[in-house]
Amino acid sequence: MAIYLTKESKVLVQGMTGSEGMKHTRRMLAAGTNVVGGVNPRKAGHTVDFDVPECLEGLGGAPTAVPVFGTVADGMRATGADVTVVFVPPAFAKAAVLEAADAGIGLAVVITEGIPVHDSVAFTTYATEKGTRVVGPNCPGLITPGQSNAGIIPADITKPGRIGLVSKSGTLTYQLMYELRDVGFSTCVGIGGDPVVGTTHIDCLAAFQDDPDTDLIVLIGEIGGDAEERAAAYVREHVTKPVVGYIAGFTAPEGKTMGHAGAIVSGSSGTAQAKKEALEAAGVSVGSTPTETANLVLARLEACLGEQRQ
Hints:
There is one protein chain. By secondary structure, this protein is α/β, with parallel strands linked by helices. It has two domains: about 10-135, 3-Layer(aba) Sandwich (Rossmann fold), CATH 3.40.50; about 155-310, 3-Layer(aba) Sandwich (Rossmann fold). It has nine helices and 14 strands. The protein has helices spanning about 20-30, 70-80, 90-105, 115-130, 170-180, 200-210, 225-240, 270-280, 290-310; strands at about 10-15, 35-40, 45-50, 65-70, 85, 105-110, 135, 140-145, 150, 160-165, 185-190, 215-220, 245-250, 285. Strands 3-4-2-1-5-6-7 form a seven-stranded mixed β-sheet, sandwiched between helices. Strands 9-8-11-10-12-13-14 form a seven-stranded mixed β-sheet, sandwiched between helices. Helix 7 (about 225-240) links the parallel strand 12 and strand 13 (about 245-250). The two termini are about 25 Å apart.
């Protein structure tokens, strides 16, 4: 099992023929992702040959010919695609997601950063109305290790396992995956750190809670906004599986926007300490560093195993 992305997922790449799209499509293919097509109206009818010499666990292949379609709808009709990964520039990202939602795709993973907030509001709202889940924008995507990788997350730093990970931060996603590589993950979801994102911590908490092959959930947050506080309230009311958290930004100066955290910290609102306290009040173990967080995960897993033996 996994959430949102499995080995059966058929993936389109909007912007596949651009430099970033080409690079990461090759990496996705090497990870075993079933990339069934690219989308570029100016190159419709062409085929791109990807040389994928190094494949994880024998997945993928070399060379791999991927057709280019003029629209998402064309690609879906020809291939049965149910996922699209968006690598188009910020100015065209809104149109790309609206097109994907109009085509009825189930999942749109928006990697693009620098998208205006009003565009993100527009396309996330529209996609929800159309029944399309958006992950991102400004995110690394998601990976179900050993099955499929939609985005830019390195596929070779962990293995399949029973931990679910949801994170605002791309870099911290990678670090926790590596720290816990000997245990492994069911699915890792980088939701992005922009002020407006399509899929939230709460969405992923609910999905991992319902996934029978996820035993423990790791939640990574950042200063700014109240997403983590709302996630804490959800954990308290709805999540029975153990949750371990980490909040980036304990040393951030008050009143300053930091990186892509998405909000100015004001008083106690949005601070790392406030988020930590809210999560701990909901029964979440919160680490002070990524390594400590990984150790907390291992301890909670060992405790769960001990309870099962009794």
